[in-house]
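Following up on my earlier thread - several people asked me to post the actual chain instead of describing it. Fair enough. Here it is, all 255 residues.
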Amino acid sequence: MISIEGGGSLSFSSMGLFRTDEPWTHPVITVDSYELIYVLENDVLIYEGDARCRVAPGELLMLSPHREHGGYGEKNRGTTSFYWLHFYTPDITAWQLPVKRKMPADTEKELREILHFSLTDVRLAELELARFLIQASAERECGSRTAYELREYLRLNASRPLTVAEVAAHFGYSCDHLSRLYRREFGCDLKRGIVGARLRHIEALLLNTDYPLKTIAHMCGFGDENALVKFFGYHEGISPTSYRSRFFRVHRNAH
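Reply from S.P.:
Thanks for posting it. Predicted structure:
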């Protein structure tokens, strides 16, 4: 279990990507964890207790533990797919999560990263899940919004080398102020955040494409393949080739 300063604590349980082309309705189950469902294709009709909910593509639903939930109405036709994620927390109110909400366009990428980390390092999966829950919560104070704009900037510019000074100049803050803001929100300094965003970009290319290392090096702003191998090996303790061989398959679970 991890704890977030000024927030809640949680532990990751399990996660998967469900997809079917067959007529389908959600099975009737009761679980002891919280569950998130993020719909990719087709509306998903779910009841929990006396409440009924239609979850459209791009929407996130949170289900509570120890309460029966399942599908209602006619079975879905066509392709139905969604991410599902189970986690535990002693105080769900600390996360200020709505039961259902429309999510940003990059949510699938966020969940794909959590799924990947759940296969390689559960601690990282929990950290990414905590960040995801904070983002999914209600509107936050201005400083926090700046932090998430900063994180998005790092993500969008992960294909090139960034410096703390360059990022600070872009946002109009001093390096120290921006680093403190980033650390307060995400638990690590800005320099590490820059490196982390770049590593996630490299990992996504390794896992989701068959591009040779030379091409990935060029796409990620490295002078040559050797520079990429050195950078990746230093931070991840494994070569890009070994990483791709070990983790190239996307983990898909039946729900």
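The domain at 142-247 is CATH 1.10.10.60 (Arc Repressor Mutant, subunit A). That should answer part of your original question.
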